[in-house]
Amino acid sequence: RGQMIIDIGGGTTEIAILSLGGIVLNKSLRIAGDELTESIIHFARVKYGLLLGDASAEEVKIQIGSAMPDDPSAGSGQVKKELQVVVRGRDLSNGLPKSMKFSGTEVREALAPTIQQIVRSVMDVLEETPPELVSDIIQHGITMAGGGSLIRGLDKMVSESTKMPVWVMDEPMSAVVRGCGKLLSDERLLKKVKVGARLRY
User: What family name appears in the similarity comment (predicted)?
Assistant: First the structure.
């Protein structure tokens, strides 16, 4: 059966269509988690004149980064408060330490261009996918892995854009490592997927 995998790592996003133990289509983007972090650094510098380090921007992304607004209803008629986080960096105007609050809306807007590029690439791959495999993907859904898949609402955005079910793997940050371990421990499966190569001297 056909399967679609979206692996959003640190440096690259890998989008692939798999069938019969092989890759039918794939697209690799140099746009992923690191680019999302850089988007927050750029936003802070341009809008507030605040220089953030990579670690601070990464923490902002993890705490309040999102692809879509949260459901405004808390389930009991109450309105959810917008997520905020205090960030600390250096004021570019005077070089002194500076603290301020970022809202979830601001961070979402900063991440939007990068996220939209990833979603557009997913759509591009689907447009090239053979119809019989698209039918399988509609039935079984799109699988997301990698740390970038943990951005809140990203799975929902992909689902709404593709009109297909989307699910995030358990422990997505270690999915590739666990998959490689399983492959190496199964000799029959390894023979099925390995690619032969000739050594040149």
Answer: Belongs to the FtsA/MreB family.
